[in-house]
Amino acid sequence: MRETVPQAIRRLVGIILVLVTCAPWAYSQKDRTFSIPLDDLRTWAEKVVVPLNVQISGNSKVHNVQSDCEMHLGARVAGYDGDPDGWVLEPMNLCVEPFFGHAQQSNKDWEDFGKSLEGAKVRVEGVPRIWPEHLIGGSRSNPDHAVEIHPMTRLQRGNHVYNFTSFIYAPDGFIGGVGEDTARKILTETEVTVTEDHGIVEVDFSSGRIGNFTIVDVSVDSDSIDEVDGGCLAAGVAVLGRSQKVPVTLVTVADTEINKTLQQLKRTKKNRRRTFEVLVLFSLSPEALYKAAKESHGKQIPVENPIQLIVYGQPYL
Known about the structure:
Blueprint (H helix, E strand, L loop, with lengths): L4 H18 L10 E5 H9 L3 E10 L13 E5 L8 E4 L17 H10 L4 E14 L10 E13 L2 E4 L16 H10 L1 E7 L2 E7 L6 E16 L2 E11 L2 E10 L3 H10 L6 E12 L1 H9 L6 E2 L4 E7 L4
Parallel strand pairs: 4-6, 12-15
Antiparallel strand pairs: 1-9, 2-3, 2-5, 3-4, 5-6, 6-7, 8-9, 8-14, 10-11, 10-13, 11-12, 13-15
Helix pairs in contact: 2-6
């Protein structure tokens, strides 16, 4: 039987949809599924900053301040059993900070440094950030990964030590690439489940468009602040409006100005709550993932309050 024009159009649309769905770059639910070893989640749940021995695979150019002012270093961690198994190391504010021992900032200095590290085995420290934005389509400087060291606080190659802690702050004029509406959706609509099996935790992440940095109002109770290895952890609230407040975990890095502010708040004689406008980096909470994974026993378990905000500081707009 000869097809009518509408039938032919519908058949053609169906073929196109099949081709798009099967394309290697197409978005699918699988693109937001990844795995992390349970032991790693346990370690990351107890600390802000962790050490790792890595091998550098490549570096990006230094990004401008409107992008994030960073340089990416792709890396591999020997023995890491997560999937995908790539890592990215991200020191902050290289586009405005001079290279160590130099008087003036130069992107070339930082990029030459990155190139000199290619293939090197180094020890790094920083905040483990879990975020499924680059699970596929990677490169040497940005391999397929679900975990980053972001921000990186320290790198040691042989006897040479490079400390990046003083670089962790909100750079002048940077408001992040995630707009208010997208940030609101990430905070309110993201759903995460975990399934633990023989020490490997599969994470299913359901959300719309995601991204990295944004500016948000956060409220924190002084009694909720814990000083741990590498900084502070706190049970906070993202304040989206008078009647819309989302529970989140807040992380600050030791020796940064925002960490000192939380330490001072914790030392107040009576319980106090303060609200700050801060530059934050979206992450999943290792503690929330680990807590849910312990209850899994092979079953899929929803993660309560999955979002962690890595706090860089109060912005200068």
